[in-house]
Amino acid sequence: MESRIWINVTTSISWNGPVVGIVRTEQEIVRQFLKLYPEKVRLCEFASDGFYAVDVEDYKQVLDGNSFVRKAKKSQRNTEPKNVFSLSKNEFIQRLIKHKNNGDLLLHLIPKPLRKYAKRFGLSFNKNLQKQQKNTKSINMSIFERGDVFLTAGADWNCGMTQFLWDIKDKKGIKIVTLCYDLIPIKYPQYTCPGIDFGFKEFILESSQVSDVMLTISSCSETDLKKYLSFTGSNIPYIKKIELGSYKPNKSQGEVRAAVGAIAEGDFILYVSSVERRKNHEILYKAYHRLLEQGKTYLPKLVFVGMKGWYVEELINDIKLDPLTQEHIVMLGR
Fold first, then answer.
1. 79-88, 225-234, 253-262: which has the highest mean pLDDT?
2. Long-range pairs for 68-71: beta carbons < 8 A, 24 or more residues apart
3. Which residues of 168-200 are buried (b: 16+ CB within 10 A; e: fewer)?
4. pLDDT value at residue 31
5. Which of 140, 155, 195, 210 could be disulfide-bonded to 165 (CB atoms 3.0-4.6 Å)?
6. CA–CA–CA angle 157, 7, 202 (5° rounding)
7. What are the C-alpha distances in Å from 274 to residues 21, 285, 303, 312?
8. CA distances from 83 to 86, 145, 208 (A)
């Protein structure tokens, strides 16, 4: 059988907000691969119990700018029933055996509302056994065949997927290609969500161990990745820098808002990005404030286009209330 290219689309089918960089990149990778290798490309998603195929026709909703709605019949997953009363006698016995092996049988038999009190008296899960169970549990990988290639370019540090890539690599013999956008959570954790740095470090190190190829989107990211892997003593796989593409949408007449049209009549600087602390909005705002304070009022309008991110409320208020910059900085949102 000819090898297939499996593209992980977990991030983009789970995303419900306005499209951001990583989501757009995942979508465009699929779009272009479908043009280049329509017979080879397959799409998949990651769930807690393994990997499942995503119908290409279903995914085209995402490429058309709509939310993902599964039209094709959903894969049957081996999920464990949550309602204990729906289990057969044999299933119930098997569940008890599993909890006994995990070392948490006694805690499992205690009703959930009372478990927090039981823990106060010393009853707890056997964490070592539980970890072993987690690392050795059977996952669904039936969609893969030997010789396939698995490409993932999403926000994979959020879902704990990388630990399972070892299974599909070892048992299915497939090639793993991962994408590293940047190392900001490691280099500058103060500009990201609290706590992301720990999970992100684990994600980068696991990716480096299991990947046949790691892609980066810039020379800076490539250098940072190699330095970090060398510093930690981790495996350094083949690393390849790629360039993100861009495209110009077809221009439509009569769809320009009045606020946008007024800006376009004069000189302006356009900055398109989510407003976040790790971006340069604050630096640009302070630069404009200083120039205006010095009496240099002939400045092009500074136009920010992008959704509001985390921890930027004070910055946005400063920009809106600053009398020096009010006429010079425009925030158009999305």
1. 225-234
2. 68/12, 68/13, 68/14
3. bbeebebebbbbbbbbbbbeebeebeeebbeeb
4. 92
5. 210
6. 20
7. 9, 15, 13, 10
8. 6, 35, 40
Q: What pLDDT sits at residue 34?
A: 94
Give SS3 for 275: strand
Q: What would the mean pLDDT of 162-182 be, rounded to a whole number? A: 91
- Looking up tokens 């009398």 gives 323
Say whether pTM exceeds 0.90: no
In the chain, the amino acid numbered 311 is: Y
**Tokens representing residue 73 in the block:** 């019949």
- Other Cβ atoms less than 10 A from the Cβ of 316: the count is 15
Task: State the Cα–Cα distance between residues 200 and 76, nearest whole angstrom.
Answer: 31
CA separation for the pair 152, 165 (Å, rounded):
11
- Rounded CA-CA distance 71/117 in Å is 45
At residue 80, the pLDDT reads 46
The region of weakest confidence among 9-18, 63-72, 286-295 is 63-72
